[in-house]
TrEMBL record, chains A, B:
Keywords annotated in UniProt: Allosteric enzyme, Cytoplasm, Glycolysis, Kinase, Magnesium, Metal-binding, Transferase
Main location: cytoplasm
One annotated GO molecular function: diphosphate-fructose-6-phosphate 1-phosphotransferase activity
Protein name: Pyrophosphate--fructose 6-phosphate 1-phosphotransferase subunit alpha
GO BP of this protein: photosynthesis; response to glucose
Assigned protein family: Belongs to the phosphofructokinase type A (PFKA) family. PPi-dependent PFK group II subfamily. Clade 'Long' sub-subfamily.
Function field: Regulatory subunit of pyrophosphate--fructose 6-phosphate 1-phosphotransferase.
Compartmental location: Cytoplasm
Any single Gene Ontology cellular-component annotation: cytosol
Gene (name only): PFP-ALPHA
Domain of life: Eukaryota
Residue intervals of the Phosphofructokinase domain: 88-453
Pathway assigned in UniProt: Carbohydrate degradation; glycolysis; D-glyceraldehyde 3-phosphate and glycerone phosphate from D-glucose: step 3/4
HAMAP family linked to this entry: Phosphofructokinase_II_Long
Length: 624, 624
């Protein structure tokens, strides 16, 4: 491959200006010393799956959290690393490009060179393919100069997001040994980080010296858990998409003749759609998670939209904006089941032309009901993670088509007396994910890059770089690392009464779970949305966050999802540790009987409550 | 109609910040005095059509140019207007919304109130429909506060762009009389300004006191001539589109697996596509004007793109970005002819279902060759100006389809040995035209609004507000007004040998005319493009102008088209007048014989050269 990666084009004036921006470092990452404090060993949030996870990851499960501390903090057990031998690190982009990715590499390079100018950073060319084939580019300041604070992954390129098959894992192992890497940094989303954990375990078993580190970079915003508040790229994607959605809303309100159906890239979960809704106030949003939890059919959805169109027509409004996440199609139970059948036939090697004739009667009935263009798209081969090719399935056109058909029917029957329904469809994804990264994503990615070095300096393997307290200014950010295994869950599928199958442990995409923990995180946002749903639907209170700004007011805006959430799990874990330490200090051998009694009684009731709360619930997960 | 126009929603932080921005006024518009200098009577640039234009516009053709002067300038014949009785003005949005439109109204309102606080500005609700039905909203500072520097036309709304039929013209006349309007300001593009000129003439004939003023506001950027350098909205549209095209280019370069076919809104002419090309450096752009002038067929275009794809594949490149103007489809001669037949059958009242069977044999052959989705789109009713519904015809999908078919054929035949060709299609239009306006468009529109008042204060009818020298800072802008009739041309179509038909005088969209005057204007840009065409095609020197900025570097950027052009026609006309005045002053009665002889001889040769140059060329216009 005659690659052009790393060869810069002409930068525009704004690109040049951006390339000069220097992100700030939080105090804990400043200086030339690495100060790491370890917490207790970690468990998996999914206590029912913990056993299965620990069995799959004997070397890397249960490792402690790591917190990186500022120089001024006085903590007894902190490990201070002042010796920094030159090390060799490889870095690879995995999966869909996400704005800010380049800054992870810049941050990592900068940290490496600050601690030892003789350290080496090798970028793998063309993503995982470059990793398998040992194709590298040594990262230098000169190469970086054109990619600092710029979008895309074009400095190194990317291919598939998987390092999974035995062949792939072995190729990666061979590469890391051949290049004598001390560390391998994997930049990607849920799939790539699951693979990073597997690679770390494999390397540990093989006694390979290379430590594997993951970085949460995905525009989907679905790598969310106790340790990870948001992902690099999510902020930018939501801002660019919101700008466009708002522009379209302004257009709708000016011309008053079209309904815009807008599908948003973001994989299975609806995080992007939710954030864009909070930014732009469209008339409707259909969250995949709501559809799945309420088990809405295509017919229900069509009816809901048609009723809304009709209510608006009664107020003489013939325009509107409706958002759909790209994962919606898989959230509709009957379509999901149809897709499962199709994918099953794919796995059996049935050719595309023959699939429709081998569907079960009910699946066949649904399939035949659908318009031709959607049939073709549903028949596409599934993605590497077994999900449908969501970016290729034009759900927005399907719904617009179904709504138009139904509105025409109502018009004919006389139950609808308004003007003809007109839809325009959009898919926003590619035009956002290549954007210059927002200031937030520049900062976040750069800091994560620095943390990767700290993780490697502390010789940690199978960890993900984390920053918490992100909604506050950079100098308040808390930097740390968490074992990737602690973010894993195990999925169970019921296969008829009594039978169930168990998936492999993996970092699963966090959905906007309306009943579970994730919902807690976004509940403020969701409540806001619910309270305003009727106003949004009927009153056109469109809002335009405007284009991404790099200077002046607006440049420091963060996503609503991040700001309304009260996460800081890592901060709380630390706080708890402080409480436990205090109890231990107060109730030292020699303390009074009364104090000891009070402590025992209080702690006994605390442990009892917590034991009950933490018991495996065995609640079934819907793998929609 | 229960209208929500003028009812503001919640403004975002950036929207609020923008609403506080106060555009600067050029010195000639400052103060409370209007100082107007008249030039010579105007002619039409199209000398062959001048007679026909003057006959159609006896009252409004041949009026002089007007220049508005700063207080400090000493000119003998300047008319100084210090008395400003309270006046009543109506304003209407016509045609597609274009960013900055609201600022024309703000500027006009501000100028009205500065000169007399008792003046009244009435906005027509719902565009021309509001004008015909006398539905108005009195514009106040309170209403404006939420629309200053904001996008869209939602303060007043808009409907059709035409005031053309006798019924429509009479309704407008009735409204202006009933509301006792001293002025009617029409905000729109070529169609609306042609209608404005017709309305001005009709009002003059009917001795209606309302003066009609046009304002060049159209995202297409095709209302360009000696007097008008650019249009309100064009700057913003090109910037937002270029941002998205560049993001997609970054995406292409990162993933290296797709060809992106991007169609750009902008009607018949390719100005938007040209400017976006100069901003973003995509791999290819297909200008409609080039296709029309070279008479390229669909087959030629397909082959050109396929050959480019193949050359790139030989360099192991399987991605690319190709821009198409929405007008391209009408520029392909055989498709244009097919559309003419279809539109002819529409006019004869043939139903859509029967059109295909009544086409001529060759048109039918082409039609049957096309894929189904394009057939449906070509059969749509034409627009009010007889052009096809360009926004609805997915030329990008047609070309992607033809290229894919051809590449598959080459692959099968073994003449192409690369990877499978994959295309993703986009249409960028709606997501740009609702944007917050750029600083340039905010300023330009606001200044034009002020000029409208100056035109009305000078009692001019049938004029368009103009600003020249736009590529320089606002304090260097020259403000004036030109009769709309001076911008008109008359089209001739040859109807077989010897026979030709003549169109109505109209302000026609300026195309990127590769042989004519327009080409002169953009030649620098076109040369830049041509010189770099191969580099653009093969080397991926993508450039990302980034998102629209309102603060910091980049906020003052202007379009390349504007900056490379050397227009300032109005400035040169003034300069010429100065030369003529000087000659007259030097050669006053009483001067020496020698001086007189020299002047006579010199001027005789000047007039001879100019007569030859100005002779009607009768060159035929291609009405593609």
């Amino acid at each position: 491959m005659d690659s052009d990666f790393g060869i810069p084009g002409e930068l525009s004036a704004l690109q040049k200006h951006r390339s000069l921006y220097e992100p700030e470092l939080p105090p804990c990452l400043q200086g030339t010393t690495v100060r790491v404090e370890f917490g207790d060993g970690t468990t998996a949030a999914d206590s029912s799956g913990a056993h299965s996870i620990s069995r799959s990851f004997p070397h890397t499960y249960g490792q402690p959290l790591a917190h990186f501390l500022r120089a001024t903090v006085q903590v007894p057990d902190v490990k201070i690393i002042t010796e920094h031998p030159a090390i060799r690190v490889g870095v690879v982009f995995c999966g869909r490009q996400s704005p800010g990715g380049h800054n992870v590499i810049w941050g990592l390079h900068s940290a490496l060179k600050i601690h030892n100018p003789n350290s080496t950073l090798l970028g793998f060319l063309g993503g995982t393919e470059g990793l398998f084939a040992q194709k590298t580019l040594e990262i230098t300041n000169d190469i970086l100069s054109n990619y600092r604070n710029q979008g895309g992954y074009d400095m190194l390129g990317r291919t598939k997001d998987q390092i999974r098959t035995t062949e792939q894992v072995n190729a990666a192992l061979t590469t890391c040994k051949a290049l004598k890497l001390d560390g391998l940094v994997i930049i990607g989303g849920v799939t790539s980080n699951t693979d990073a954990a597997q690679l770390a375990e494999t390397f540990a078993v093989a006694k390979c010296a290379t430590k594997v580190v993951g970085v949460p970079v995905t525009l989907n915003g679905d790598l969310k858990n106790q340790f990870v508040e948001t992902n690099v790229g999510f902020d930018t994607i939501c801002k660019v998409n919101s700008q466009l959605i708002s522009n379209v809303s302004t257009d709708a309100l000016s011309a008053e003749k079209y309904y815009y159906f807008i599908r948003l890239m973001g994989r299975k979960a609806s995080h992007v759609a939710l954030e864009c809704t909070l930014q732009s106030h469209p008339n409707m949003v259909i969250l995949g998670e709501e559809v799945a939890s309420s088990k809405l059919t295509l017919f229900d959805l069509t009816k809901q939209i048609c009723d809304a169109v009709q209510s608006r027509a009664e107020q003489d409004k013939y325009h509107g904006v409706i958002l759909l996440p790209e994962g919606l199609i898989e959230s509709i139970p009957e379509v999901y089941a149809l897709l499962q059948e199709i994918h099953g036939l794919h796995r059996q090697g049935v050719s595309v032309d023959n699939i429709s004739s081998q569907l079960s009667p009910w699946a066949s009935a649904l399939f035949e009901f659908l318009p031709l263009f959607i049939k073709k798209q549903l028949l596409l081969h599934p993605e590497s993670d077994d999900s449908a090719q969501l970016s290729q399935i034009e759900t927005e056109k399907l719904l617009a088509h179904l709504v138009e058909t139904e509105m025409n029917k109502r018009l004919k029957e006389g139950t609808y007396k308004g003007k003809k329904f007109n839809a325009i469809c959009h898919f926003f994804g590619y035009q956002a994910r290549g954007s210059l990264p927002s200031k937030f994503d520049c900062d976040y990615a750069y800091v994560l890059g620095h943390i990767c070095y700290h993780i490697l300096a502390a010789h940690l393997n199978g960890y993900m770089a984390t920053v918490t307290n992100l909604k506050n200014p950079v100098n308040k950010w808390r930097c740390g690392a968490a074992p990737i295994t602690a973010m894993m869950t195990v999925k169970r599928w019921s296969r008829g009464p009594g039978a169930s199958s168990i998936g492999k442990p993996a970092v699963h995409p966090a959905t906007v779970d309306l009943k579970g923990k994730a919902y807690e995180y976004v509940s403020a946002a969701m409540m806001l949305l619910r309270q305003n749903a009727t106003k949004f639907l009927m009153d056109d209170i469109y809002r335009n966050p405007g284009p991404l700004q790099f200077d002046g007011p607006g440049a420091d805006a963060k996503t609503v999802s991040l700001c309304v959430e009260d996460q800081d799990y890592m901060g709380r874990i630390k706080k708890l540790q402080e409480h436990l330490d205090k109890v231990r200090n107060i109730v030292k051998p020699g303390c009074s009987q009364d104090v000891l009694k009070a402590a025992l009684s209080a702690m006994a009731s605390v442990t009892e409550v917590l034991s009950v709360m933490s018991a495996p619930s065995f609640s079934s997960h819907t793998p929609f």
